[in-house]
Write a structure and sequence with these properties.
Blueprint lengths: L1 H29 L61 H7 L8 H5 L11 E5 H18 L11 H24 L35 E6 L5 E6 L23 H21 L31 H10 L3 H13 L3 H19 L7 H4 L6 H13 L1 H5 L7 H4 L9 H23 L4 H8 L1 E8 L5 H14 L3 E6 L10 H12 L31 H23 L1 H10 L4 H6 L6 H19 L2 E6 L35 H16 L10 E8 L8 H11 L3 E8 L4 H12 L3 H15 L3 H13 L3 E4 L3 E4 L1 H5 L5 H8 L7 H11 L4 E3 H6 L11 H10 L3 E4 L2 E4 L2 H9 L3 H21 L5 H13 L8 H20 L3 H13 L5 H4 L1 H18 L2 H14 L3 H18 L1 H14 L11 H15 L16 H19 L4 H16 L3 H16 L4 H14 L5 H16 L6 H17 L6 H15 L3 H17 L3 H19 L8 H8 L4 H10 L3 H17 L3 H10 L1 H4 L12 H18 L2 H20 L1 H19 L2 H17 L3 H17 L3 H18 L2 H7 L7
Parallel strand pairs: 4-7, 4-8, 5-6, 6-7
Antiparallel strand pairs: 1-2, 2-3, 9-10, 11-13, 12-13
């Protein structure tokens, strides 16, 4: 019984509370005037009785609900949820009258004055279901009868209107849900406060079943059709069972997130129904899915049960639900894309919340999911505020609108401060006009208003004040502006004068003087002009003339050109008087009087907004600005970076005088109370001693000045996100991730935000997609650095940080730009105690935008911040701090492996300490020198020669006095390695200096040897002969007495043949079983001989073979070494190139490669690969397979500093790339890269005689213009040398390799341009090079030149009928016949083409055609695209000569296509000319 009584009491309490709510709601509903609008419409009349007529019975806590009573929300759309809280029944003007003085108008009220409310509208209440049906029927009828065109968004006006109304319904509906659902807004920081989020007095929590079209009512204005309100029928789903839970705390036994997920699901389905005009959300996994998709079909009892893979495969084939919903809404309902995304995102959020909970959203889901119902409300609010962008998506970027002059973000409070000041001035003037004798009014008039707007550059000071200009001008204000720049003004007062003169040159100037007057300005004041403009400049001039006379006008006109023109026109009959007036601006007091009178006169006609731009750029002297009475003009900061701090002293004194005038004059005589004065200045340009600071303090101390300080900072995150959202036309929730990064990178300053976004767009980190809008990669943007301006702003933050945070940043600033966590962890005890606060301190710095963290690496956001942080360390504390950090890191250097991470960081800190700081500590100095030596060696191993030079030089600086005696080994190593690093870096003068140190102080020849070798390389750059002489001298020191003058070619040949016999057959394998050489004298001898071989090989001297034989014999006796490998490679080259012993040369080359495994291959590759792959292996290996090893040789030549072989490797790689038919544009790119490396080493010979001519030839073939920004293009364009000049220059320099290359290049250029006369001249001129009659002596490495010479010879044989040309061509053919048997891949197509040309020359038509076709086929099969082009070109000429037009066109087309594929665009176009004659 007790339990039943408790339940009955609880039920009565619930019904009592509900009845009271219904009574209030009944009053709202009964006072509505509605008409029938469908089966569920309600027509209510004014009640005769308060309760009875309404059908409500309230007694003893019970009530009987009427069947059609529905819950209604706010009374009028726009005064319901999220309004400012003002009562809708109180007219705006009435409120203003009540609060005329006490409550100033808001900025919005100035912009848009509110009209008086109209009479109460007639309203109609309908269920949402019936509303949808009715509107769809009405819309279909109107569409059938309408002739209105479809808009640019693909919707007719009726569809567009329906969508707008649906958005309003959704807006109010979601507002009710967000206000009343208990679990919707927990832990949601984005939700508005209760004051701003007012959704009525609902205190019920909706259930998912309440969010249904049958349970929702729509209130619509009958006359306008506007949506007035949306409500819920609280009875339709009410559980009348007394056991039901009326509070709704236990809708389901689940978490708040899961409850909210159910609400989202119901809301998504409802909105789909609403926007589509009826229908259910499509589901891809419906029960209509064919069973065949699940596996094998059913066959009676033998059911094929699908396995897991079959089911997963079925779901993969089904469309995603989001895509299906969007496609359905777009195709079936023509619904705008933003609404499709809204519905799909709501439903997707529902799935996430019901499945994983709101807190487990992945990064992928974050932008597409809602965090709360308020986020949904915010999306719909944006759709209503900016329908074109957010509802209909007719525009996808409002960049100009948002960042232009039409909208202001994040400055509502500051704007209101400006308007409040103007309002106080206006009230003060009105009070004084009503009662001028009143003490109160007198007091109000005496209080002056001043506003100073301050902020960092880019904070939007100018933009802020510009925002109030338009509303104030609409109220009759006159706007004047003077703008100071950061340069000295040529004339005193010029800026202020021009600012005032702007008024006389503006559009307000009137050209209508009073009728019948020859001189309107001398007429009475009211008759000066006949226009209706109260503040007409003519009237102002007339007033000025009466106050200061013509002499005063003349003085003012000297500074104001427009004023001078106006009075000159008006006083034309007194021009002589004007010209003869003496004086001008006579002294400070007279100046202040004239300008003050001018402002006083302007203010007497209308309120004046006097804008002084950039106050902080004025250099103040004796300034005591006394502000003027009536209207307060804020100092406007104009667009740009200039600020008032740049004004001249005279201008500031004038401003002082103007204010002094306002205070000095009596209220009856002065109109200065109608002037508003505002200043803006940069805080980053002002110091405590600045005159502006003094002026502001004087203002604040003055009891007659009400000083308002407005300080601007960066946008808060919410305001910035609003700005970005509207700029990109995307909902705020989707731009939040981007805005967070922008806020961190720009600190929210408007100018920096715009610059950063523009940079993202320029760098394609922010991409606009016409279909989907803007897209970006958050991770990529996060890696983008900040600008210098933002860095300067962030440095100002350093001094304001907590001590522990600043200390952590200062420690970080001691290192380089990037610091790993391991380093910071190693130095955490640098001050003798565990610095556990360092990492948290850096985390705080990261939040402030000062430091960035990528993985385990910390870095400063900008180098300026790092510099500023380091400079904040007291100079006396820097060295001790660095020494403490070094002490922590040195043990780590000793323990680490080969990475050198700790070593480089430690050495960097050591070098910041400097040698002077440790000069009194020899032990520490020696340690620091040794660590620099190790760092330099590691830098050389990493091919970082520049850093190596710095480390070695720093190490030398730490050496103590008498270091060659006390620290001999350390000194020797530092100077030796410094010479080597400087040589690799191209610092040849420094090489000589360091070498001289070693040669003067080293104790033995062995200690001097490395320096001698470097020194010889330096000598060779100037003279190879001198280098060779020096090498023979060094060899004699080692006991090798070789006199080159006693060695003849016959002796060298005999030595070579005997050595070949020793290595013939399988005997060469003996090297694989030899021990390694250990005799230091012989090792040095081998090194010197290898240098001689290199220099002789460049001259093509027989001494190359002789010295190589000597090296091989020493190796057979004392063991092999690295130079043995080099000697074998050279010997193989001589076998192939001189003795034409290809088989033995190829085999010995392979032996040389095998021997490399005993040594550091990276050191040997630059010396060996070019020789073997460029000259030896070409005889048997495919040309294309040789390019990668040759390119590797080039790269390692540069990276290891082996520049002696870099020229040779570059030449060979470029030639073989041409031979192999590599794409021309790739070769051009590589040539530019080679040129950069050779320029660094001052290798001008190869640049001028090989790289530049090759680049020019390839550009001519491809039609590539010579880019003036590239070195080779500059050299090629500047060079006027002919092919002959280049060859002769190479001969003079004794560069025989370049001579041979030049000859082949010259004949090739002539041949491809079909200048056969020039090509034939080269063949005859350099007969010794081609040596064509002696085919048994033709070296295979000359195959390109011999091939072109053979083609030219056959052509000349046909042209001249001279027998010697036929003989030359036949000899070339015989050589290629032999070579094609050795290497069919490389030489068959060339042999067949020469054979075709022979048949062509002999007139053997059938054989020629067959040979051309076979040659083309071989070129295709062996992947020589350029040879295919050449073959088809020559075949086209042949077929054209015999009149075979069809074959001619075929070959021209094939040749054209092949040349295009190769990259020879210009050559391909010239081939088409052959069709003109076909």
């Amino acid at each position: 019984m007790v339990q039943e009584d408790d339940e009955r009491t609880a039920k009565q309490n619930r019904w009592g509370s509900l009845a009271a709510r219904l009574e209030v709601q009944c009053e709202d509903v009964l006072f509505m005037e509605t008409e029938d609008a469908g089966p569920s419409s309600i027509r209510e009349q004014q009640p005769a009785q308060q309760n009875g007529d309404a059908g409500i019975s309230v007694a003893n806590g019970d009530a009987t609900p009427p069947p059609d009573l529905r819950r209604s929300g706010s009374a009028q759309y726009g005064t319901g949820p999220f309004t400012d809280g003002s009562h809708p029944s109180v007219p705006y003007q009435q409120q203003r009258q009540q609060n005329e003085v006490l409550q100033p108008p808001t900025h919005e009220e100035f912009q848009q004055p509110q009209p008086l409310p109209a009479s109460p509208p007639k309203r109609m209440v309908t269920s949402l279901k019936d509303w949808i049906v009715t509107k769809k029927i009405d819309m279909e009828i109107k569409e059938a009868t309408s002739t209105l065109p479809v808009s640019n968004i693909g919707m007719n006006p009726h569809e567009k209107l329906y969508i707008e109304k649906c958005a309003k319904i959704a807006h109010i509906l979601v507002a009710h849900l967000a206000k009343n659902f208990g679990g919707a807004n927990k832990n949601n920081d984005n939700l508005m406060s209760a004051d701003s989020f007012d959704a009525g007095t609902d205190d019920w929590e909706p259930k998912p079943q309440d969010i249904h079209e049958d349970c929702i009512t729509v209130t619509e204005d009958e006359e306008t059709g506007d949506i007035v309100d949306v409500g819920f029928d609280i009875f339709r789903n009410f559980d009348w069972d007394h056991d039901s839970d009326m509070d709704g705390d236990c809708l389901i036994s689940s978490s708040d997130e899961q409850k909210l997920g159910l609400i989202f699901e119901a809301l998504g389905k409802l909105l789909y129904n609403l926007f589509m005009g009826g229908g259910d959300v499509p589901c891809p996994t419906s029960t209509n899915t064919p069973l065949s998709l699940l596996g094998e079909p059913f066959h009676g009892e033998g059911i094929a049960i699908p396995n897991e893979d079959d089911i997963l495969d079925m779901f993969r084939k089904l469309p995603k639900n989001d895509d299906l919903i969007t496609s359905t809404m777009r195709s079936n309902g023509n619904i705008p894309m933003p609404l499709c995304c809204l519905v799909t995102d709501i439903l997707h959020t529902s799935e996430i919340m019901r499945g994983n909970g709101c807190g487990s959203l992945s990064n992928e889901d974050a932008s597409s999911c809602f965090g709360s119902l308020f986020d949904v409300y915010s999306d719909i609010q944006q759709m209503i505020d900016f329908p074109d962008a957010f509802l209909f998506a007719s525009i996808t970027s409002r960049w100009e609108l948002v960042f232009g002059n039409n909208h202001m973000f994040g400055r509502k409070k500051e704007l209101q401060q400006l308007m409040d000041a103007a309002y106080r001035v206006q009230v003060s003037n009105a009070a004084s006009n009503l009662s001028s004798t009143s003490e109160k009014a007198h007091s109000m008039r005496r209080i002056k208003e001043a506003i100073m707007v301050s902020g960092h550059a880019g904070s939007g000071k100018s933009r802020l004040v510009r925002e109030i200009r338009k509303p104030l001008q609409a109220q009759g204000w006159l706007f004047l502006r003077c703008k100071f720049g950061n340069t000295t003004q040529s004339e005193p007062l010029s800026v202020i004068a021009l600012g005032l003169d702007e008024y006389f040159s503006s559009s307000v100037v009137c050209c209508r003087p009073a009728v019948g007057s020859q001189n309107a300005l001398v007429r009475p004041f009211n008759d000066a002009c006949s226009c209706s403009n109260v503040s007409c400049p003519r009237r102002v001039c007339h007033r000025l003339e009466t106050l200061i006379g013509l002499d005063g006008l003349k003085c003012l006109s000297q500074q104001m050109p427009s004023l001078g023109s106006l009075i000159g026109e008006a006083y034309a009959h007194r021009r002589d008087s004007l010209n003869n007036i003496n004086g001008g601006l006579r002294g400070k007091l007279h100046t202040h009087l004239l300008f003050g009178t001018l402002l006083d006169t302007l203010a007497s006609f209308s309120p004046v907004l006097f804008f002084v731009d950039d106050v902080s750029k004025i250099f103040f002297n004796e300034l005591t600005l006394d502000l003027l009475d009536f209207t307060i003009l804020t100092f406007l900061a104009s667009v740009g970076r200039s600020q008032l701090q740049w004004a001249d002293d005279s201008s500031l004194e004038l401003l002082t005088g103007l204010i002094n005038r306002a205070v000095a004059k009596s209220d009856e005589d002065c109109n200065m109370d109608r002037l508003l004065f505002v200043g803006a200045y940069r805080t980053d340009n002002i110091v405590e001693e600045h005159s502006l600071t003094t002026m502001i303090k004087e203002f604040e101390a003055c009891d007659t000045i009400n000083m308002t300080q407005i300080s601007l900072h960066g946008f808060q995150m919410e305001s910035l996100n609003e700005m970005v959202s509207e700029a990109l036309c995307l909902p705020r929730r989707k731009t939040k991730s981007l805005s967070q990064i922008i806020h961190l990178k720009t600190q929210g300053f408007p100018l920096f935000v715009v610059e950063f976004l523009d940079a993202l767009w320029t760098e394609k980190l922010l991409i606009h997609n016409q279909a989907d809008g803007w897209e970006w990669d958050v991770d990529a943007i996060d890696l983008k650095g900040i600008s210098k301006s933002v860095a300067e702003l962030l440095t100002c933050k350093l001094k304001m940080l907590r001590h522990d945070v600043l200390s952590g940043i200062q420690v970080l600033s001691c290192f380089r730009s990037h610091v790993d966590f391991d380093i910071l962890e190693a130095v955490q005890n640098y001050d003798g105690r565990s610095s556990t606060t360092m990492i948290p301190a850096l985390h705080t710095a990261q939040e402030e935008g000062l430091v960035e963290k990528a993985g385990p690496t910390y870095t400063f956001a900008h180098d300026l911040i790092q510099q500023a942080a380091f400079e904040l360390i007291p100079s006396t504390d820097r060295v001790p701090l660095l020494q403490k950090l070094v002490s922590c890191l040195i043990p780590c250097c000793m323990q680490e492996g080969g990475s050198g991470t700790f070593l480089f960081v430690t050495v960097d800190l050591i070098n910041k300490i400097g040698s002077d700081a440790v000069s009194n500590n020899p032990t520490q100095s020696q340690l620091f020198a040794r660590l620099n030596l190790e760092a330099g060696k590691k830098s050389i191993a990493m091919s970082d020669f520049s850093s190596a030079v710095k480390h070695f030089n720093s190490g030398i600086s730490f050496l103590c006095a008498n270091y060659w005696e006390d620290q001999y080994e350390l000194s020797l190593n530092l100077f030796e390695n410094s010479a080597l690093a400087n040589y690799s870096e191209g610092n040849h003068e420094q090489v000589v200096i360091q070498v001289n140190h070693v040669l003067s102080n080293a104790k033995s020849f062995e200690d001097k040897f490395k320096s001698y070798c470097v020194f010889v390389n330096i000598i060779a750059l100037g003279s190879t002969e001198r280098a060779i002489e020096k090498l023979y001298d060094l060899l004699r020191t080692l006991g090798e007495n070789i006199d080159p003058n006693t060695i003849s070619p016959q002796i060298a040949l005999g030595e070579f043949l005997s050595t070949r016999e020793i290595l013939s057959g399988g005997k060469k394998d003996v090297f694989m079983h030899l021990f390694q050489m250990t005799d230091q004298t012989k090792l040095m001898t081998m090194k010197l001989m290898s240098m001689l071989v290199l220099y002789y090989s460049q001259e093509r001297s027989f001494m190359t073979g002789y010295l190589v034989c000597k090296m091989i014999r020493i190796s057979l006796q004392y063991g092999h070494c690295e130079d043995t490998v080099f000697a074998l490679a050279i010997f193989a080259t001589v076998l192939v190139d001189r003795l034409i012993d290809i088989d033995e040369g190829y085999a010995l080359g392979r032996t040389s490669l095998s021997l490399m495994k005993f040594y550091n291959t990276d050191n040997l590759i630059p010396r060996i690969y070019g020789i073997l792959y460029g000259t030896v292996f070409i005889s048997k290996d495919p040309l294309q397979s040789l390019l990668d090893p040759l390119l590797k040789a080039c790269r390692l030549s540069f990276s290891s500093g082996n520049f002696e072989h870099s020229c040779f490797n570059t030449i060979l790689y470029t030639i073989r790339s041409w031979n192999a038919g590599k794409k021309i544009h790739l070769i051009l790119n590589e040539l530019n890269a080679f040129a950069h490396q050779h320029k660094q080493q001052s290798h001008m010979t190869i640049l001028q005689l090989f790289l530049a001519p090759s680049y020019k030839t390839l550009c001519a073939l491809s039609g590539t213009p010579l880019d003036s920004s590239e070195l080779l293009a500059q050299l090629a364009a500047a060079s006027t040398d002919s092919d002959d000049d280049i060859i002769e220059a190479a001969k003079v320099k004794n560069e025989m390799v370049l001579v041979q290359v030049g000859i082949v290049s010259a004949i090739s250029n002539a041949f491809f341009s079909r200048d056969f006369a020039k090509a034939s001249q080269f063949i005859l001129k350099y007969q010794d090079f081609f040596d064509i009659p002696h085919t048994e002596k033709l070296p295979i490495n000359k195959f390109e030149g011999i091939f072109i010479a053979g083609l030219v010879s056959f052509h000349m044989a046909r042209e001249t009928r001279e027998a010697h040309w036929m003989e030359k061509g036949t000899s070339a053919l015989a050589a290629f016949e032999k070579w094609s048997k050795l290497n069919e891949w490389n030489f068959e197509h060339r042999y067949l083409l020469l054979k075709a040309e022979l048949h062509h020359t002999k007139g053997e038509t059938s054989a020629a055609a067959q040979a051309y076709d076979l040659s083309a086929e071989a070129a295709v099969n062996h992947q020589f695209i350029h040879q295919l082009a050449l073959t088809c070109e020559l075949a086209a000429h042949y077929f054209g000569n015999i009149g075979a037009n069809e074959r001619t066109r075929e070959m021209v087309q094939r040749s054209h296509d092949a040349y295009m594929e190769w990259g020879a665009t210009r050559k391909a176009k010239s081939i088409l000319n052959l069709l003109d004659g076909s």
